[in-house]
């Protein structure tokens, strides 16, 4: 493979070298969180974390573990930089992005360190493209301080059923209200749009419900515009876990199986819109 | 009011609503104790009306509060949202519950889906007047019935830009072509014409050989429903100007689309000559003063409209020449009588063929009529 013929000498300069035989394993995940132009890359020996935020209220993280990569060499404990995600995705799809069986784009991602651009070597069918994307000072990602010990309610659903609900959501509603309760309606998504209200109720005994652990009745509202982008991640996933903590902060975790069958995670955090006392 | 729709009927209901959305923006809901649930729509210009009546047996449960006199209208887009993905509906929806909450002015649609998912839509409605179109299918002279595939296959050939179609019928044939309003456009427009033989229909009765022009979009609306349910479509009409009724029925539902048709003033026959186009014959009393003007007009080969009521229509300014093949005129037209003053345009050749010899013609001088072109007769008679 042309990419592997890089001289050893060149590799010495890079603090990070990561290769993938199929760039789609990365680009699909990044597309799922590409609701803003900029993304923060945080790299550790465990793998790669890409973070996108909006309005200081919603944050999406895509995790690609080190063992997903064919080669993953990191010379520091923590590397962080910010790049334009739209540009990065364009580069990853530079060979057209069409899905043809047996043909994939190989990726070698290299980074020399602070101040240097992110270098991508992309190869398909013997053609090699080199892309250098400028990096920026990484912003500090928001720490939602969401920890398992504060989780009041948690459900794990098969994505299939939630996909239908999310695609049907009344977009004229400004908020998406999520009710989780040990009693009826158990797990409810509600919208309040121009024509009236709509509710999607999932029964705790449903075969789509893999886990149902709700301690108390909680109803929280989230801005629809902030949550709508999560639909992309939902579309890729096979399972989703929905958790709320005692402050009403929402955590959505999506289990994504990539083309090779490996598992990656995408996570969304969202702050609640306002206090809701009663159901509508 | 509480209705429950189960199984395949949920999709039928959804298709009916989508079909009604092609007519107007609002859905008029009117439940009747005995007759069933009526869903209606009308377009803004009131030139298209559609009604689906679902008998109580369509529902697995149909209970109307005794004495309920209720009708409302809801934005049709809101109802469509409830039944959004029709394709998945039949796979996932087990039943649909429709409930009226008069206290809160809401109509609630609850879809019980597979895997324990419950979708509830609370739609607010507005009170409305009753919407009823007056039409009588049984008195129509032209009645046709065909499997929806026949009509769908016909209509698919017209591009989406086509607004209106003209349907012409004779004893054995039905022609469907796109209607182009004026001459100038006609030379630039693509003209599409489909011919259907009577044996393609389950029932073909064309007592009046005429043509009607109506809006294609609204016909497509009905076909959306007919095609998915496989119910045959019946077409009823009398004459241009009076509405055409398109209807689908089975034992538990009835759908009627009533569409206005263009009246004769606009329904000008175009230049194509292959069809046997019938026109209402001239009035019986064409043997009057005006006949001379027609004779003169014939000489100039421009055909003014014969009009007992309006002599001034002999001016040819606004009239168009129709170049139909001669074979088309004649017998058919003579047989049919109409007592309505014709405001149609007639071909000059028409008078030539049916004009009986009359002593009046040669002796009566033309004094009162507008002369369209110079003619030597006047000079001779003026002597």
Automatic annotation (TrEMBL), chain A:
One of its GO terms (biological process) is DNA damage checkpoint signaling. One of its GO terms (cellular component) is checkpoint clamp complex. Gene3D superfamilies: 3.70.10.10. Component of the toroidal 9-1-1 (RAD9-RAD1-HUS1) complex, composed of RAD9A, RAD1 and HUS1. The 9-1-1 complex associates with LIG1, POLB, FEN1, RAD17, HDAC1, RPA1 and RPA2. The 9-1-1 complex associates with the RAD17-RFC complex. RAD1 interacts with POLB, FEN1, HUS1, HUS1B, RAD9A and RAD9B. Interacts with DNAJC7. Interacts with RHNO1; interaction is direct. Belongs to the rad1 family. Component of the 9-1-1 cell-cycle checkpoint response complex that plays a major role in DNA repair. The 9-1-1 complex is recruited to DNA lesion upon damage by the RAD17-replication factor C (RFC) clamp loader complex. Acts then as a sliding clamp platform on DNA for several proteins involved in long-patch base excision repair (LP-BER). This is Cell cycle checkpoint protein RAD1. It comes from Austrofundulus limnaeus. The gene is rad1.
TrEMBL record, chain B:
Keywords: DNA damage, Exonuclease, Hydrolase, Nuclease, Nucleus, Phosphoprotein. One of its GO terms (molecular function) is double-stranded DNA 3'-5' DNA exonuclease activity. GO terms for cellular component: checkpoint clamp complex. InterPro entries: DNA_clamp_sf, Rad9, Rad9/Ddc1. GO terms for biological process: cellular response to ionizing radiation; DNA repair; DNA replication checkpoint signaling; mitotic intra-S DNA damage checkpoint signaling. The keyword Nucleus applies. It catalyses: Exonucleolytic cleavage in the 3'- to 5'-direction to yield nucleoside 5'-phosphates. Component of the 9-1-1 cell-cycle checkpoint response complex that plays a major role in DNA repair. The 9-1-1 complex is recruited to DNA lesion upon damage by the RAD17-replication factor C (RFC) clamp loader complex. Acts then as a sliding clamp platform on DNA for several proteins involved in long-patch base excision repair (LP-BER). Belongs to the rad9 family. PANTHER family: CELL CYCLE CHECKPOINT CONTROL PROTEIN RAD9A, DNA REPAIR PROTEIN RAD9. This is Cell cycle checkpoint control protein.
């Amino acid at each position: 493979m042309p990419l592997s013929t890089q001289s050893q000498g060149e590799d010495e300069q890079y603090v990070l070298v990561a290769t993938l035989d199929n760039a789609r394993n990365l680009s699909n995940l990044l597309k799922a969180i590409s609701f803003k132009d900029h993304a923060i890359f945080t790299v550790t020996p465990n793998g790669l974390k890409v973070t996108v935020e909006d309005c200081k209220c919603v944050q999406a993280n895509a995790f690609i573990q080190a063992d997903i990569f064919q080669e993953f060499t990191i010379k520091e404990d923590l590397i962080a930089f910010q790049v334009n995600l739209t540009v990065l995705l364009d580069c990853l799809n530079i060979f057209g992005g069409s899905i043809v069986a047996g043909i994939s784009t190989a990726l070698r991602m290299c980074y020399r360190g602070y101040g240097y651009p992110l270098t991508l070597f992309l190869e398909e069918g013997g053609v090699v493209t080199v892309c250098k994307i400028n990096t920026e000072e990484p912003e500090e990602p928001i720490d939602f301080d969401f920890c398992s010990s504060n989780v009041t309610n948690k459900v794990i659903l098969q994505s299939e059923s939630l996909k239908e609900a999310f695609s049907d959501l009344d977009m004229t509603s400004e908020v998406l209200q999520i009710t989780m309760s040990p009693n009826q309606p158990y797990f409810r998504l509600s919208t309040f749009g121009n024509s009236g209200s709509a509710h999607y109720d999932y029964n705790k005994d449903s075969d789509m419900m893999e886990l149902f652990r709700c301690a108390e009745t909680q109803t929280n509202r989230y801005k629809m515009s902030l949550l709508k982008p999560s639909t992309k991640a939902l579309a890729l996933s096979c399972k989703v876990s929905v958790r709320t903590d005692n402050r009403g902060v929402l955590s959505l975790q999506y289990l994504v199986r990539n083309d090779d069958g490996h598992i990656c995670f995408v996570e969304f955090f969202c702050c609640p819109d306002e206090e809701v006392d009663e159901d509508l | 009011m509480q209705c429950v729709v189960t199984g395949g009927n949920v999709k039928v209901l959804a298709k009916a609503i989508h079909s009604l959305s092609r007519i107007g923006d609002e859905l008029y809901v009117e439940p009747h104790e005995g007759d069933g649930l009526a869903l209606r729509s009308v377009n803004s210009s009131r030139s298209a009306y559609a009604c689906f009546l679902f008998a109580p047996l369509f529902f697995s449960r149909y209970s109307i509060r005794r004495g309920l006199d209720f009708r409302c209208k809801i934005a049709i887009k809101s109802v469509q949202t409830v039944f959004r993905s029709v394709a998945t509906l039949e796979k996932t929806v087990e039943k649909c519950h429709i409930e009226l909450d008069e206290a809160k002015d809401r109509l609630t649609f609850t879809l019980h889906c597979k895997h324990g998912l419950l979708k509830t839509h609370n739609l607010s409605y507005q009170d409305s007047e009753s919407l009823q179109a007056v039409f009588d299918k049984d008195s129509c002279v032209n009645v046709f019935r065909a499997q929806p595939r026949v009509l769908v296959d016909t209509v698919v050939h017209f591009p989406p830009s086509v607004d209106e179609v003209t349907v012409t019928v004779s004893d054995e044939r039905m022609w469907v072509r796109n209607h182009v309003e004026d001459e100038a456009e006609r030379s630039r427009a693509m003209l599409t014409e489909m011919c259907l033989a009577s044996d393609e229909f389950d029932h073909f009765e064309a007592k009046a050989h005429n043509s009607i022009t109506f809006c294609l979009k609204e016909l497509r609306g009905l076909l959306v429903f007919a095609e998915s349910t496989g119910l045959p479509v019946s077409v009823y009409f009398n004459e241009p100007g009076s509405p055409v009724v398109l209807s689908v029925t089975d034992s538990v539902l009835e759908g009627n689309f009533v569409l206005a048709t263009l009246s004769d003033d606009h329904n000008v026959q175009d230049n194509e000559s292959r069809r046997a186009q019938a026109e209402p014959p001239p009035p019986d009393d064409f043997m009057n003063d005006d006949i001379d003007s027609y004779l003169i007009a014939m000489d100039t080969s421009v055909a003014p409209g014969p009009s007992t009521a309006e002599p001034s229509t002999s001016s040819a300014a606004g009239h168009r020449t129709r170049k139909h093949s001669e074979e088309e005129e004649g017998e058919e037209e003579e047989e049919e009588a109409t007592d309505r003053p014709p405001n149609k345009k007639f071909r000059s050749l028409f008078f030539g063929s049916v004009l009986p010899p009359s002593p009046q013609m040669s002796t009566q001088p033309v004094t009162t009529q507008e002369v369209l072109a110079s003619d030597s007769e006047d000079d001779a008679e003026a002597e």
